[in-house]
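Q: Entry one of two.
A:
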Amino acid sequence: MSFLDKFRQGAEKAAIQATAFARDGSSKLASESRGFVQGFSLPGESEKAAKILESFLADPNRPQSALNAIPKAVLQRARGLAVFQVLKAGFVFSGKAGSGIVIARLPDGSWSAPSCIATGGLGWGLQIGADITDFVVVLNSEDAVKAFSLGGNVTVGGNVAATAGPIGTGGSVQASLAHPAPMFSYSKSKGLFAGVSLEGTVLIERKDTNRDFYGSPIPARDILGGRVPPPEIASKLYEIIEAAEGLDESGLPQEAYIPTATGEHIAVGSGEGYQVHDSTVFDAEGH
């Protein structure tokens, strides 16, 4: 049995468990856990990623939404984006499984075709229930993009830093980009979850899924390097990015903050922000 088959079986079991936990308390989580399993193909992942990313970015028709979105400046200088969803379920001990895509910005400013990624892990601690979390990881450096290009693992708990990214507008956002961490992480969580867990996260290339869509075993470095034409199924994703990058921020208050795990907001520039909350090692062949 291939890794992808094992991963799919594990995710399906997690989705069933999450649905059972959520049945009495959250029909929304139950619906999303079923959709999670249905999105394993690259077209499904691209559609899911577009919806996730849209929820993190400002709506061009509502400029005020930029005050609670990934900053335009962060998006404009991004070298890549990883967008994925993680389903977590458990009682004391927990398991998680997730999937999504990564894209890279090409030298001409356009975006590469998507490469599928997967994540999984075990956790422990006071944890009861189920939770679905959406993630957007902004890759701020070519080294970060390279890690996803080499077909290896990206594992939380190493020596290349990822920090919570800023949200909002203004000069403090620009200042945070002077010497940014290799990656900015953003997350939105919904559903039923109680307590704190300690767990490791591994992101890997889903080679089988890429092969099934592109028709041959094309490595991630070729997909993210622009050697594969961007597919039509990812057009919505590109349109959302382009619209957010073109947002008119003139006249908006200059307010930016960093969200914390407890739901508090730390103002950017307060001296408390940009502490490394995750460290990440890129464990990839040849890196």
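Q: Entry two of two.
A:
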Amino acid sequence: MASDQQRHVRRSPLLFTTPLVLLAVLALVLLWEITRGNVTGELSRQWPWRLRLMDTDALGSLLAVALAAVLGRAQYARTVRPALGWRASWVPGAFAPDEPAWEAGILNGGPQHAVVERVEYRLVPHDRAPGAWTDHAGLLRELAAMGLVHGKHYRQMLVGAGFPLPGATGYETAPHGAYTQRFVDEIDELRLRLRVTDAVGDSHERVMDLMRGARLERPGAARSGLIVEPGV
């Protein structure tokens, strides 16, 4: 079973790296000015000690502003961080009136919207080796080769780059797929690797097994109900 912990995979170069670089440059300039100010006598009139880059009062103010920008950005990034998750249950009527299907949806439980950057899938068939990561079209080809027909044995929504995931006030999900009992019997895991960009340009990724709990929650099993996987 693959780990499904959400990961912070990339920070925005503009909104994260630039303030840090500015802070580092100002800190170096301040260090230079402090060192230069401690040089006295004839040496202070020689090169490079006579080089004055910036007034220390103005430099201190700029340094405080840069530090506030870095800390403020870090706090805001934590506030708007998405919480990727999924929700699934057995629901009748998706393929036939009396046939239950395992329906799964994805959600963003964070306070702000997130935009899908990339979606990939990986199949783990029953008693077979896991496949490679692939896109939506590749997933359909792999399933077709196994005799599973889209629209008959399953439905897999096409979610591409740019798809918005609004911040959730509850557990309302965006439908992602529906799977028949035959599909659940033949596929041990259907891993979804979802990468999104948040409001500050950082990228987050989570791998979710959409088949997790399907056999345990199958109608007639000892347990039944709803599987909810909140973001971490």
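A: Comment on entry two: The CA atoms of residues 90 and 102 lie 4 Å apart. Residues 8-79 form one domain.
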